[in-house]
């Protein structure tokens, strides 16, 4: 039995998977924000709960919204900033009293979907998380490709390609938590989508509320959603020009906007070199569970 844990900005989820990929038990709890010690304790309690319900796990994989530095062995690049600079692997192994494997949550999504999800059967899979943040990960033949610096697939902290005048104005008003401006994350994350609407209306709404207004015909919301699609299409076109994956899988809260999918590939074609784009863009089969399932498959 494999145990996977997905440490998100708002929730920590754990799952027990059989060797055939069957879910034996799942549990999720709120993330103790801004407390590293409490996060470690929460993971330990969650694993204990899983094992009390499903039996002892043979392996544990952990997905995080960051990566482990190959130089320092500390967490880096996490938008759950209280994890940064911590010896997470060592501390988790001490907390859980066994070896663990830790990977970026978007890599976990890509692995999960490549093994038995929407990208099953594809060689090169690019997995996208567009939710509280914006991450990317790569799975090659069902295994996470991490890279020598631990940042393979981190498209969210590249600048939005081919910005128009409105994109450039936006980046002056919305800095990224990483300290730079113009990062893809500031445009296509859920909070970025909400911020764009707020800048045009002086009204603060959740992403789901804006989508509902757009579907109902409200003009500002429709324009906001159209800008979002264009920005997402340009960002994904940059990935095609760099990696040219066999398939792109979208996960995270924003991936549940069904209207993204019908014309995203045609938008990408405008920006892909050669004006051709056959890359399918699909929604994650396992939805919110893709990351936690991928963590379990890290072993």
Please write out the topology.
Layout: E1 2-7, E2 11-17, E3 23-30, H1 36-54, E4 59-64, E5 67-68, E6 75-76, H2 88-96, E7 101-104, H3 105-116, E8 124-130, E9 134-140, E10 143-145, H4 165-173, H5 184-188, H6 190-201, H7 207-215, H8 219-242, E11 247-251, H9 264-269, E12 281-283, H10 290-296
How would you portray this structure in words?
By secondary structure, the chain is α/β, with parallel strands linked by helices. Helix content is 37%, strand content 20%. The protein is built from ten helices and twelve strands. The strands form three sheets. The chain has a five-stranded mixed beta sheet with strand order 3-2-1-4-7. It has a five-stranded mixed beta sheet with strand order 10-9-8-11-12. The chain has a two-stranded antiparallel ribbon with strand order 5-6. A hairpin with a 3-residue loop joins strand 1 and strand 2. The longest helix has 24 residues. The chain is globular, with a radius of gyration of 19 Å. The mean pLDDT is 95.
Give a quick rundown of the structure.
With 299 residues, this protein is an alpha/beta fold.
Globally, the shape reads globular
Which class of secondary structure composition applies to the elements?
alpha/beta
Note the run of SSEs as H and E: EEEHEEEHEHEEEHHHHHEHEH
Low-pLDDT sequence parts = none
Number of helices: 10
Largest sheet: 5 strands, mixed
Mean pLDDT: 95
**Estimated radius of gyration:** 19 Å
How much of the sequence is in beta strands? 15-25%
What is the rounded distance between the termini?
A: 11 Å
| Strand runs, count | 12
Q: Strand arrangement, largest sheet?
A: 3-2-1-4-7
The percent of residues in helical segments reads: 25-40%
């Amino acid at each position: 039995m494999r145990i996977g844990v997905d440490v998100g900005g708002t929730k920590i989820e754990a799952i027990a998977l059989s060797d055939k990929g069957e879910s034996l038990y799942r549990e999720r709890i709120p993330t103790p924000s801004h407390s590293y010690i409490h996060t470690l304790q929460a993971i330990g309690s969650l694993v204990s709960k899983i094992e009390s319900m499903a039996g002892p796990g043979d392996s544990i994989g952990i997905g995080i919204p960051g990566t482990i530095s190959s130089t320092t062995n500390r967490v880096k690049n996490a938008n759950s900033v209280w994890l940064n600079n911590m010896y997470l692997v060592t501390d988790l192994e001490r907390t859980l009293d066994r070896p663990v494997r830790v990977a970026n949550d978007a890599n976990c999504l890509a692995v999960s979907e490549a093994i038995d999800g929407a990208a099953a059967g594809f060689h090169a899979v690019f997995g996208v998380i567009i939710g509280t943040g914006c991450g990317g990960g790569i799975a090659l033949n069902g295994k996470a490709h991490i890279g020598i610096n631990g940042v393979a697939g981190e498209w969210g902290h590249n600048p939005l390609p081919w910005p128009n005048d409105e994109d450039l104005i936006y980046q002056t008003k919305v800095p990224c938590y990483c300290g730079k401006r113009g990062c893809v994350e500031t445009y296509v994350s859920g909070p970025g989508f909400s911020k764009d609407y707020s800048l045009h209306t002086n009204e603060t709404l959740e992403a789901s509320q804006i989508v509902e207004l757009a579907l109902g015909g409200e003009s500002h919301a429709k324009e906001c959603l159209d800008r979002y699609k264009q920005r997402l299409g340009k960002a994904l076109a940059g990935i095609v020009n760099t990696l040219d994956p066999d398939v792109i899988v979208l996960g995270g809260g924003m991936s549940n906007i069904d209207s993204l999918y019908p014309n995203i590939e045609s938008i990408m074609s405008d920006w892909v070199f050669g004006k051709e784009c056959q890359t399918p863009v699909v929604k994650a089969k396992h939805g919110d569970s893709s990351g936690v399932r991928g963590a379990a498959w890290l072993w």
